[in-house]
Design brief:
Immunoglobulin-like, 54 strands, EC 3.2.1.20, Glyco_hydro_31_C
Length: 1014
């Protein structure tokens, strides 16, 4: 080990410098399409119009749309009854039914429960559920559990929330925070509309409000007040502001106040006066409804609309975001899955790794470049004609695979393959097209039906496909779950994967309706779009500013793009993980005809609801299984669409528990719902190799942190299009501080592994070494997330709740409470502006690379220009925290066997604290666990270990930041250390203590110790 010196370039280097829809179905082939040839087989191509639905104009864009608030009567409450935890009431329609977007429900019931000191439940639903007079779909608790009344803290007297109601002029309810008298939500001034296919309720919001959440959307972290958020899972390649893969119907509302001498609070909009003391309160609202929903954020209101289900609201009082997130996870959706240690390493993937030999080359290239590689992934290339659970024996044969995977595992590296969410339906006239997975699924009653009671046959990558019926398996006892578990287990006998990547799970289908039902004799078929790299579909897109640095190549690409024929129908973009289509009716014109439907008494219009949500695909059946697809037992896809991704993740979790008994399953999924984080992580989908998408990765990650899915990352360097050196260098460094760290790009694009460019390799080495050194800290964050709901990636405003100027901050973020990341997010920059939160009240920030105090003299909210040449990502350590580190290696296996280090960042009082979690890194329920508590104060650092897990790695280094005066001596457990083992820098106020290995040779945490400096 080389000692820390005052001239070292980085703390890390100092520590370790060495290392029903049927009309649009595709009919029989005569005269419809011609046989085309791809690079590997002659197949029938699905006609392009097979994925075109009706021309739908969203109601929010429709000038002819009726405003239900103008014509609907609302309800009147009666028979109000007090209960042990709240009250109930009957709600009866207050006038003639309006029946605008469905058939009004005349009789409702209201239930209000003060379930816990910080949680109130308000539920409104039809009164006669299950009777002969009325049936209704309510989200089953067997699919999405709901919390009950807590054993302690329940009841109105214990709650900071108060629910009141009024019948003037019609029924309304109001939720108020008692401690501040602030109205958090009220339907007063509007009417509640409740029909069989349309529910609307809303509330005014304060001026210039701050709302967060309502994921998944590519948007800034703060949602703003001119946005329609659609919650309908869509296979759409990350369009900005459109609905994409996941559905999380929760939002946070943060409000900033000033307080007078009497304690009275005054709400402040757009507070920016840094001389004022502010106080904030954050509350949360979750609507336990899985139907298609639309939340309209206008300048003064939030309006919530759903196409079914019920009003099932949970209000959380907070009063801050971190407390709210913990309570939401603990009470409602479950605590996040604890990750295996290895999953926090670096992952490499691309669509286009052609065989095992290519994978081996990639693995070898990482080693040659001295870049860490934990896990190699494969996209759909490995599949036998894109079919789940079968490898192409010509390219990814089982024998060769066993050799590759054996070598990979011997080197303590890992392998994760993609698994899609649809199952190929074999050609009944071709005996060689047999597909046992399908046959076993049919035997298990594992697949959805169409409106006529036959198997629903759509189209995905392998051709015409069927779709697992997860709902039928849960509600009606079919063998779907058991079949899925067994298929993964059977496949594992041939392919020893370490985790699973679930894709296409919205669930996606490349045609409207059961288009393959009468066309199975054509299977296998080609999708109705060209794959990247096929004729007319070269990948020629580059990042913004590419022409400034690569003018000749940019000019050639621009010319080629202008001359190649359009490979896909207008509005459609293909990718390995999704194909995104935009509605042809995105704007209203006088000459365009749109489908508008009206309610039919006693009937739900499943395919074309009378209220048209603002779906990025338009027609609900475009690029999705149709709403009238049927589950076993008769329930409809209309009621369950947003749950497909969630349920396949749960099924895959069960499968991996069987395959790896006692080990934590590792799953990354695309479509998620509230609670998916309990079993899986999520990646950001099909982003683009654009600077804008690198920026959007931060708010996307923070939104998933808010939603209970901390294991999040994006396709680093971008998926669609070609990356370039500058973008990839910046992005590889940014993603090094995301929980899930993976590089992945599209078929036929230019390679973007970090070793492709020397500058990217250099930047990656720097950032990856820091990440790997920080893995003990990150792993401890995950332990706290799993144990009590803490967040891993954090918004600045969550930690610094009294600084309203941070409400929009989403270009910086915190990893846990102690590490702040300030990345460069624009092309051509060599500096970045950043704020140092808390400095107005004494928070100290230290530069990671030299340990110096960078916050001295800064004013509250002050923006600072920070030098950030290419290859450098500014990082800062927050005073008051102790960071456990470990010498970085090429794999996490090496990391966990390397010496320890500790960085102590003292606050302005000379104090700091921290913790370290230790276990075997893989067990679902570890038998042996150790927690190490760090406490620094009055010139000393104490480490106290509690638990039975034994780690034998020695302590090598301790670095203390913010030591104001040069010490005369340093002691370990009262014994003076030789002067040659420690050094103090007057310039940076850093005390570096090295060469502790011998004194801690039995293990850094095998006994408690104290280091003092005086």
């Amino acid at each position: 080990m080389v000692a820390f010196t005052s001239t070292s370039l980085a703390l890390l280097a100092a520590l370790w410098p060495s290392l029903g829809h049927t009309a649009a179905c595709a009919p029989a082939p005569s005269g419809l399409a011609t046989t085309t040839t791809t690079s590997w087989r002659a197949i029938f191509t699905v006609p392009s119009d097979a994925d075109q639905g009706q021309n739908i104009l969203p109601n929010v864009q429709d000038p002819q749309a009726v405003n239900v608030q103008d014509v609907c009567p609302g309800y009147t409450a009666s028979a109000v009854t007090t209960t042990s935890s709240g009250f109930t009431a009957n709600l009866d329609i207050a006038g003639p039914a309006c029946n605008v977007y469905g058939n009004d429900i005349a009789n409702l019931t209201l239930s209000v429960e003060y379930q816990a000191a910080d949680r109130v439940h308000i539920q409104i639903q039809p009164r006669y559920i299950g009777s002969e007079n009325e049936t209704w779909f309510i989200l089953p608790e067997s699919i999405i559990p709901r919390p009950g009344v807590a054993d302690t803290g329940a009841g109105a007297a214990n709650s900071d929330l108060e629910v009141t109601w009024s019948n003037e002029p019609t029924f309304s309810f109001t939720v108020t925070r008692k401690s501040t008298s602030d109205v958090l939500f009220t339907t007063n001034g509007s009417v509640i509309v409740y029909a069989d296919q349309f529910i609307e309720f809303g509330s005014p919001l304060p001026e210039d409000y701050n709302l967060y959440g309502l994921g998944e959307v590519i948007h800034g972290f703060r949602l703003g007040n001119n946005l329609t958020r659609t919650l309908f899972a869509a296979d759409a390649g990350d369009p900005i502001d459109g609905n994409i893969y996941s559905t999380h119907p929760i939002y946070h509302d943060t409000r900033y106040f000033t307080q007078d001498s009497s304690g009275n609070l005054t709400y402040v909009a757009n507070a920016t006066d840094t001389s004022v003391d502010y106080k904030s309160y954050t509350h949360g609202v979750f609507n336990r409804n899985a139907h298609a929903q639309e939340i309209v954020l206008s300048p003064s209101n939030i309006t919530w609309r759903a196409l079914g289900g019920n009003i099932d609201l949970y209000f959380y009082s907070g009063p801050d975001a971190e407390t709210l997130i913990k309570s939401y996870q603990d009470s409602m959706i479950g605590l996040p899955a604890m990750q295996q240690y290895w999953t926090l390493g670096f992952h490499q993937c691309r669509w286009g790794y052609q065989n095992w030999s290519v994978l081996q080359e990639v693995v070898d290239n990482f080693a040659k470049a001295e870049l860490p590689l934990e896990t190699i992934w494969t996209d759909i290339d490995y599949m036998n004609q894109y079919r789940d659970f079968e490898n192409d024996q010509n390219t990814f044969g089982y024998v060769e695979g066993a050799k590759f995977l054996g070598k990979l595992h011997e080197n303590h590296q890992h392998y994760v393959p993609i698994v899609d969410s649809a199952i190929y339906s074999p050609n009944p006239e071709n005996a060689s097209d047999a597909y046992p997975t399908y046959d076993r699924g049919v035997k298990a009653d594992a697949f959805m039906f169409d409106a006529e009671g036959d198997l629903y046959v759509g189209a995905v990558w392998p051709g015409y496909t069927v779709f697992p019926d997860w709902v039928g398996g849960i509600l009606n006892g079919t063998g779907t779950l058991e079949w899925w578990v067994e298929e993964l287990a059977l496949w594992y006998r041939n392919v020893s994967f370490d985790g699973i990547w679930i894709d296409m799970s919205e669930v996606s289908s490349f045609c409207v309706g059961p288009c393959g039902k009468h066309n199975l004799t054509l299977n296998p078929v080609h999708p109705d779009f060209s794959l990247p790299g096929e004729a007319g579909n070269l990948v020629l897109d580059f990042p913004e500013g590419f022409n400034l640095t690569n003018a000749t190549e940019a000019s050639s690409a621009s010319y080629a793009a202008s001359t190649q024929a359009s490979p896909v129908p207008t509005g459609t973009t293909s990718s390995s993980s999704s194909v995104s289509t935009t509605s042809s009716s995105s704007t209203s014109t006088s000459s365009t005809s749109y489908l508008r439907t009206t309610p039919t008494p006693g009937v739900r219009n499943i395919n074309y609801p009378p209220y048209a949500i603002s779906n990025v695909q338009g027609d609900l059946a475009v690029h999705a299984v149709s709403p009238n697809a049927t589950h076993h037992g008769g329930t409809l896809e209309y009621d369950f669409h947003n749950l497909n991704g969630h349920l396949i993740l749960n099924a895959t979790y069960s499968a991996l528990l069987k395959i790896f008994p006692g080990l934590r399953p590792f799953i990354i999924g695309r479509s998620t719902f509230a609670g998916s984080g309990r079993v899986a992580g999520h990646w950001g989908g099909d982003n683009a190799s654009k600077w804008a998408y690198m920026f959007f990765s931060i708010p996307q990650a923070l939104t998933f942190s808010l939603s209970g899915i901390p294991m999040f990352g994006v396709d680093t360097c971008g998926f669609n299009g070609n990356s370039d050196m500058e973008l990839c260098a910046r992005w590889m460094q940014l993603s090094a501080f995301f929980p899930f760290y993976r590089n992945h790009n599209v078929l036929a694009a230019a390679p973007q592994e970090p070793y492709v460019w020397s500058a990217v390799a250099d930047a990656t080495r720097t950032a990856a070494r820091i990440r790997y050194a920080l893995l003990p800290y990150m792993y401890t964050l995950f332990a706290r997330a799993n144990g009590r709901g803490d967040t891993v990636m954090r918004a600045l405003a969550w930690e610094f709740t009294d600084e309203p100027w941070l409400r929009n901050a989403d270009r910086q973020f915190l990893l846990g409470p102690a590490v702040m990341v300030t990345p460069v997010l624009v092309q051509g920059a060599d500096s970045v502006d950043g704020v140092f939160p808390g400095t107005g009240k004494g928070t100290v920030w230290y530069d990671w690379y030299n340990g110096s105090d960078v916050s001295a003299g800064l004013k509250a909210g002050e923006n600072v220009t920070i030098a950030a040449p290419l290859g450098h990502i500014p990082l800062y350590v927050r005073g008051g925290y102790v960071l456990p580190l470990q010498e970085p290696g090429m794999t996490t296996y090496e990391n966990r066997r390397n010496p320890w280090g500790v960085v102590v960042a003292l606050d302005k009082e000379g104090k700091a604290g921290g913790e370290l979690y230790l276990d075997d890194g893989e067990s679902l329920k570890p038998e042996d666990v150790t927690w190490v508590e760090f406490s620094a104060t009055n010139g000393s650092l104490a480490a106290t270990a509690t638990g039975s897990y034994v780690d034998s790695n020695p302590l090598a280094n301790v670095t203390v930041l913010g030591v104001k005066t040069a010490p005369a001596s340093v002691e370990l457990n009262g014994k003076a250390l030789e002067k040659s083992t420690w050094e103090y820098s007057t310039d940076s106020s850093v005390l570096a203590i090295t060469s502790l290995n011998d004194q801690t040779s039995g293990g850094a945490w095998c006994s408690n110790w104290t280091i003092t400096w005086t």
